[in-house]
Fold each of these.
Amino acid sequence: MKISRKAMLLAIALLGLHLIVLFAGFLAPYDTARQNRELPFAPPSHIHFVDAQGKVHFRPFVCMMVDRPDAFGEYLEDCHRSFPVYFLVRGAPYELFGFLKTDLHLFGVDAPAGIFLMGTDAYGRDVFSRFLYGGQLSLFTGLVATVLSLALGMLLGVLAGYYGGWCDAAVMRGAELFLALPWLYFLIAVRAFLPLSLGAKDAFLLLIALIGLVGWARPARLIRGVVLGSRERHYVLAARLFGGSDLYLMRRHILPDIYNILLTQAALLIPQYVLAEVTLSFLGLGVGEPTPSWGSMLSTLQQYSVLVSYWWMFLPGLVLVPVFCGYVLLASELQPGRRAAVA
Amino acid sequence: MRFLARRILHSIFLLLGISLLSFTFLQLAPGNFFDDMRLNPQISSDTLARLQKQYGLSRPFAGRYLSWVESGAKGDWGISFAYNVPVAPLIWSRARNTVLLSASAMLLSWMIALPIGILSAGTRYRWFDHAISATTSFLLVIPDLLLALGFLWLALRTHWFPAGGMESVKLSSADAGSFKDIALHLIAPLSVLVIGSLPVLFLHIRAAIIEAQQEPYIRSAQSHGISSMRILFRHALPSAAAPLTSLFGFSLASLLSASLLVEVVMNWPGLGPLLLEAILARDVYVVIGSVMFSALFLIGGMLVADFLLFAIDPRIRTQGLA
């Protein structure tokens, strides 16, 4: 299997994105639950280089946000005092990768002012920090659910294709059942029969299991088709005549045929599953407050007043476009031709 | 005819299977509708037990399933705990809005995708094809959720078309509920669904026609000097029609999913908001009813595709004779 240069570059770009959200604790200036009740829906902070006297600073600075005296819910910058942006500062403690306890942040400003690269939400929480942490949940749900889905699909698809007979019939009838439902309806209905309010960790695991298990049917069908073909190859027959066991034949001769499909399917499924998480959380069926995910962050947009007034609340949704773009391009690179660009 | 009979039988078995599957999940579900009442000191545990018995919640799996099938046969499809009415009329009052939305989106997106797909495949690798392909690739990567929110934003900002709902408020406008009123409200959700499903349809249609054009008999037709227009419409399109009819069923599936989301975001009174409401209230028979209806709609769509296939593909029609 040859992977083209372009596919490699795309894969590296996507890997970089995942690394960014993995280092959320370090890159985010604030804790996701830290509220600034006096600053709800503050717009993104301006990063200044030139101060009120016209002097140019090499170290960028931000100004304090204060309420506009004549309007409710709007802010002015008070640049009487500048708050320089420092790098590698001590701040709120967090656990990198879930176990490295530290309080080092890439950047930050001194206390009374705040640096909000993407503004703040209804509780005055920093959207940028929540965006990074939310990406952890959204992106990794997609990733792990895809692995689960493909593992199950591969197991059942190979069994069905290789052994045929009643095994094949059972798996294929099951797959038809799963495919005969619009997947969002199915996903939501299964979610209906599970506990509604959960802790962040339970909700994360539940979402992975749910999204992964509901989606096994399509990859299983594809893999079965390929296995059906490769089972009949002459070299497989020859290996069988030499006394190769079923397990050996699968590992040595059948599985290499489906790696390419697995890779392409992964590139197609991951964005779909990320979207599934975003959708479920948006509808209030995924992770709840205060844990951020891109979906739950977008769900504030269900209020019309937020939708029209605060454009920065769209940012967690807008980032889905480049993510999808990367995965779709990767999929069409991995398998040029007809099915590639189409989910 | 044997083909069609087999497809219909198959669909019925699928529906039965889906109902069994949903009931199995239901059996695994923790808690029920009356759990919240348990916290209410004014409701005694005797009352609760009686309610649970009355609604058949304490019966074993097989009994519950059979009585549900029976009520399905009677046209009730179980009872809604929250509304205390049979599920079927409740769902139908919402489902027809979903059908209105999805069917018009389906029709419109095929009516747009088919001509531009044919044109694009016909003028392959020229500027029109490149422009259309680039546009659709761009649309492909925009999630439906974002599209829906974007259109809502546009509606609220510009007031070009109504934002959310299906009818104007009765008091504020005289023609609330009229055809024109509903058509205006249809603009935003319909646009989202059409834009969302267009790229996939277009890519499939273009690919199917291009594949058909590469067959040897097309080349022989070209060498006979038949005009390229005639080749496209008389020779390539009929052979591309078969894969496209099966695409019909699949496009319906993704459209229904997208429709659910759009309905919730845009407040369209369809199945989506009902389903969501029922889930939060643990109104399980409404959940099962909605799922069954979506499956019915989808399987019905696939059956229509099969019928079309039967009509246009002579190989299937003559299967029984050979």
Amino acid sequence: MLTRKNKIIFLWILFIFSVLSLAICPLIGMKNISIRVLLQYHVDELEPSIYWNIRLPRVLLAFMVGALLSLCGMVFQAIFKNPLTTPFTLGVSSGAAFGAIAFIVFGAEAASLGFAKSYFSAFTGALLSIILVYIFARIRGGFSTFTMLLAGVAINFFFSSLILLFQYLADFTKVFQTFRWLMGNLETYGFSKVVNIAPFFILGSLTVMLFSNELNLMLLGEDMAISRGLDVNRFKLIMFVICSLMVGASVSLCGVIGFVGMISPHICRLIIGSDHKYLTKASLFFGGFFMVACDTLSRKIIAPSELPVGIITALLGGPFFLWLLVNKRKGDALL
Amino acid sequence: MENPAIEVNNFSYSFGNGDVLNSVSFAVKKGEYFSIVGPNGSGKTTLLKNIMRILTGGKGVIRAGGIDVRDFSQRELAKAISYVPQPDGRSYPFQVWEFILMSKYPYLNPFSKITAKDEREVDEVLESVHMNRFKNRDMNTLSSGERQKIMISASLMQKADIFLLDEPTTFLDPKHEEEINRILKRLNRERRITIVSVTHNINLAAILSDEILALKNGRIVYFGSPDGFMDGRVLSSIYDKEFELITHPGKNIKVILPEVIC
């Protein structure tokens, strides 16, 4: 395992990579943009407009979504003490997907009700799934981890079935739209999506960072955490609500982008260890950087067309994770 | 009169339909070495977990230092009582010093930083169990005996006056078992830490304890001195088997002889 000093160096490296990715990646795309052109900014020129209105917001959005999914994956893995947990395990994503797909399929009706954009509908779906998981967990008494997981899985299946039903009933164009939505995408024009997700990202990340001691205690098991003075049920509830809102916001705006939320925390954990004082920051920067890098590749690799970013995250992250796993020392636990 | 360290008053607890603890009442005096014995499934662990509030919802009252444990915040309770669970081989992905520092949690706020004083305290608690050289080892690479000593030093870091230990020497070889027991007895004598230990080792319970509580099917079947406990009739009523007892040659105390099985 890295020494304390090396952990801090690693965090600085991740921070620098993140800043560099935010600075450089908006310049890369179907058509590369030079810094010189940007500095001679004129509103009527095409390249600065692409940079400011399309690429920069997209890269910022990618960073925040990647960071946020990675952080939430890390939190859920610690709370459930289960390495297979993802930010989507508790059904938030399928709730959001159901909301979005309901909007796509019944769009005109929804618009007439005042839902102008699919992500309002998606966020409502996410909130619905959060409330359902919460109710089921409370009905059983306490706030049992197993009940939450099982309720999450059940709600996932329930909403997935409804999505299939809606797709079956919809026409081909709408089915294609729903299919593309489910693959996730980071397309945006202007900063509205960035502004929408920023409060979830900033407040959520800061809160998770403040709870690093508590997350460490959860890794010892619930009975040990309680005996060290942690009110486990209250803590789980706080984390569940915060992370679900973060994931709900992300899925509502960008669809279901898989893999990054499960694998990023593991990659960081294998390098930097399980101490959440370092792991939260590492997961945040790595998740953000990784998503920006994958999104840039997805825009570049078959330009002028684009690959869904989820394909790239899985193709790159999977082998890297397996390489780390094979090379990890004996005694280094995955959680 | 001084409040007992722990007082359990007419306490019952059930999982589903079955009573695990049934109208249990006893008190542990401050500074006592107190052993809880009984057959498997008699409710010993459930009792410890209810004292620590790991389990909640029982009927009756449990007090620590005269205060109902339900009136403590979890942090305040952790300052009063520490708990060492049954050894179960679970993974702790931390180094020894990190693990011990985590016991400072009841005294921390989200912005607390590790200070030189904290690091000195880690050294001190490791020294008290003679484990300084393990400070930078990964928890998952320790043997069961080493791990138990680290658990005890973590309890010391927590600065509680009452230690609850659930079978602290199960799975240990005789050398480590003796070491752990010596450490616990020393802490009990020198620092006046109240030890409440669940054990299956009847002889050690008799030798080490000031008082013994025996549970069977969730009820108290014996509560009193080790002398009274080491009686053939008492023991056979608890464990449903006969025991052969002899007087320990070095101490005026009865111990049970191991069974010769042919």
